[in-house]
Amino acid sequence: MTQLQITKTQRFFLLPVLLLVLLISGCGFHLRGDLVLPSLYQRVYLVDNGHTDISKPLKAALESVGTKMEPTAQSASSVVTLLSRGVQRRALNVAGKQIREYELQLNVAFVVQDSTGKQMGDQQTVSIIRTFRNNTSNVLGSGNEEDIIRREMNQAAVLQILRRMKAIAEK
After folding, report:
1. What DSSP state is assigned to residue 9?
2. What distance in Å separates the CA atoms of residue 25 and residue 82, rounded to the nearest whole number?
3. Which CATH number belongs to the domain containing residue 149 in this structure?
């Protein structure tokens, strides 16, 4: 059986790492883990009201945390209704006749009901705001960048919706 031997140089580098680990664990810092939803969301029926750009990633996120998507409200343990979704685009920085920077704001409103149809908490609204530069010499690239930002905003909204759903059930 061989013994593990640590040289002075290794100790010199190992000591700060260990101190950093102790400091981080002592301050209460922890990595955000997987979201675990309460049993209210074991079987969910999602009413999207035509907002498929939010409902598709929301369904995928719910399924990834172990929720079964139900085809009818009667078979579900809860009903999540997406009431509205809106995106506003406004100019932030204008130079002459050219807009150099835009702000996008995504608002998604939803409500959660239990299996009896009782609304759980108030209507919730999630807002995501992002800015992006408009490159007037590369119109196609700016358009693609805006599309990517919109998809990222949808994903951020989905994560906020899941966290709000969890908070609603824990009240």
Report:
1. H
2. 39
3. 3.30.160.150
